[in-house]
Each structure stands twice: as C-alpha cells, then as structure tokens.
Amino acid sequence: MDHRFEVTKKAGILGILGNIFLLAIKATVGFMSSSQAMIADAANSASDIFASLMTFIGNKIASEPDDESHNFGHGKAEYLFSLFISIAMILVSFKLFFDSLTSLITYHQLTFSWFLIFVCIITIIVKLSLFIYTNHLSKKYHNILLEANKKDHRNDCIVTTFTLISIILSLFGIYYFDGIVGIGISIWICLTGLKIFMESYNVLMDIAIDSKTLDIIMKIIKKYPEIQKVDQVSSTPVGYQYLIVLTIYVDGNMTTFDSHKLADSLEQDITNLENIHKTIIHVNPI
Questions:
Q1: CA nearest 63: which of 129, 163, 141, 120?
Q2: Which of 47, 126, 129, 201 has CB atoms 3.0–4.6 Å from 92's, for a disulfide?
Q3: 2-204 in CATH: which number?
Q4: pLDDT, tens digit, 9 for 90 and up, residues 146-167
Q5: Where in the chain is the domain with CATH 1.20.1510.10?
Q6: Are the C-beta atoms of residues 240 and 143 closer than 8 Å to each other?
Q7: Where do the DSSP E strands lie in the chain?
Q8: Dmax over Cα atoms in the chain, in whole Å?
C-alpha cells in the first residue's frame, strides 16, 4: 500500500516539473508567433500542472491511514481530487474553444518559426515518456489519479501532433487549420474532463462493484457447499477498493462455532481479491 502511494507521489512530482518546463517554452514561442494552436497547447500544459498538483495533494491525503473519524481511511480523496482535475479541464476547454473560434473567424495568421517545430517535437518526446511511465503505474496500481494523468499525457501527444501539422501547413499559406486545431484541442480536453468527472462522481456517489468482480465473488461462494442461500451482495467504494456486505444462509442445525468459522473463511477468500478492502458476512439459519 505504501509503495502504491509513493509511486503516485513520484508521478505527480514528475508531471509538475515536466509541465512547468513545457508551459514556459510553449507560451513563449506561442505568443511570439501568434499561433493559436500553440497558445491553446500552452494553456493545456497549465491545466496539466494543476492536474499534477491535484494528483500530488490527493495522493498525500489518500495515503493517510484510517482513524477514529475516518474508519475506512481517506482513499476517496483520490476521486475527490480527480473531480477537481476534470472540472479544471472542462473550464480550460471552454476558454480555448472561444479563443480558437474567434481566431478562425477573424482569419488570424501565425508567424512561422522553426522554434514552433522544435517545441512540438520536445513536447511529444516529454509527454510520450510521461505517458509510458504513468500507463505502467496505473495498470499496476489501479489509481484513478494516475489514470487521469495518463490520459492527460496521451491526449497531449495527440494534440501536439496536430499542432505540429497546423504549423507545417502555415508554410504553404494554410492558416485556418491553426484555429481548427485549437477548437479540436478544446473539444478533446472537454471530453476527457467529462469522462474523468463521471468516473470520479460515480465512486463518490457509492457506485456498486462491477459485474465482473461480483461474478468472481459468487463463484467463490459456490465453493462452499454448506451455503444454501445468499442474499443480494451489497458494496460501497472505499477509496480504490470496495467494502462488501452479504448474508449467507446455512443449515439451522450447524453450530454457531462452525457457521462463524465458515463465514470467517469466506470473508478471507473474498477480501483477498485485489479490489476488496473488507468483507462483512452475516450468517442466518435456514
């Protein structure tokens, strides 16, 4: 568990440093060349700094152990702060959409510079490296903050590629594509933000465990022939894991000791699943 939070902290710090560097060079070159696509890309990097900062803070809070006030720990902080990330992304996307649309309507022309090409290539290299790193971590640790950052890095690679195309087209006098790319970037950021928002919102609203894990739980229960009936399995998120509550029915002639021993064994088997925090089982006679 501690290692999970430690690697997320490291990913957040690397994201902050990388995006500060990219923001500085993108904003400088973007305003010097009047490239709307590059300015939009710079604003995207600014939102990425915020996202990485939220990852760092959210991970710090989520890593705190359970206490008297928070019996199941502080794991939901991951989803609360990913919600902040998504809202910031959506707000940035609206501003970028308006600025890019204005640029397209007024037929604003960028000033070509080889520095624009250089910044795009550097951005793609940095963001691709961060994507590969966070993608590996998110698959290993199932952390929504890492997942949000991974998508952010991936989107930036795609976005900057289109920015690069718009800059190259300006060499041939095709300037309108710069505004189109700015609009495309804003829509992409908005859709990504909405997706992260819904994922976070669902957990904060105590969405039930996924059907695949539920099927695994039912298969585990079926391994116990003494269990004659199972009531509906209830679940609630506890950070990135779930609390499971269910009722089993056993032969009324079974001793209290044996029935509780059975429940303890079943609880352990279910809790051993990677995304289960704790299992609570009630035993009733039938």
A1: 141
A2: 47
A3: 1.20.1510.10
A4: 777 787 788 778 777 877 887 7
A5: 2-204
A6: yes
A7: 229-230, 234-238, 241-250, 276-285
A8: 87
